[in-house]
Amino acid sequence: MSTKRDARPSIVWHYTVETFCLPGILADGAIHTTDGGLGAKERPAVWFSRRHSWEPTALKGLIDPETGVRRNATFAEMASDLGLARIGVRPDGLTTWLEHRRIGGIPADEARWLVKSAIMLGSNPGDWFVDYGDVTRDRWVTVQRWDDGVWVDCEVGCSHNTGRLAASA
Question: CA-CA distance, 45 to 35, in Å (whole number)?
């Protein structure tokens, strides 16, 4: 699978968890960079994907209660247990994965491992973009939640527990 894409999309997506990530993003009015698990020289970034259905690398890890083994949650588990959300932004000013590999301080062996792992999950690193700063609400095009098999717009905020729109404080 090729990891290169030529044309910039009109929108890219930051995929997240509705229950415990999205409320903080909405309250702060920004998607913050993260430096968790990064090497000493790697630049913190906010990650996006051009993929419109779901970005497979956004799956969260969990410990299987029966085996004690760490594994990725399935899309269905995340949708039912955590709720799925995404924030769409225009890709203007974002850095492509290929550019990030060159300027983002990511070690070459780690970049190769990320690509290999992503492809095994069904992802295409050519779909990835990063921003090295917080991405504020004024750059957002839409906020959506996964609801019964389709992405639906959230006008103000999302509430996984009620399945209804909820006003944010």
Answer: 7
Return all residues near 120 (Cβ < 8 A) that are at least 6 apart. none
CB 32 within 8 A of CB 134: yes
Query: Are the beta carbons of 105 and 41 closer than 8 angstroms?
Result: yes
H/E element, 158: strand 158-159
pLDDT single digits (tens) 100-112: 999 998 889 989 9
pTM across the whole model: 0.82
Query: Positive or negative CA dihedral for 26, 29, 30, 34?
Result: negative
Over residues 1-18, the mean pLDDT reads 76
Whether the per-residue pLDDT at 169 is higher than 50: the answer is no
How far apart CA 72 and CA 107 sit, in angstroms, is 24
Cβ contact 125:57 at 8 Å: no
AA letter at 65: P
Higher pLDDT, 33 or 80: 33
Q: State the virtual CA torsion across 150, 128, 130, 107 in degrees, nearest 10.
A: 140
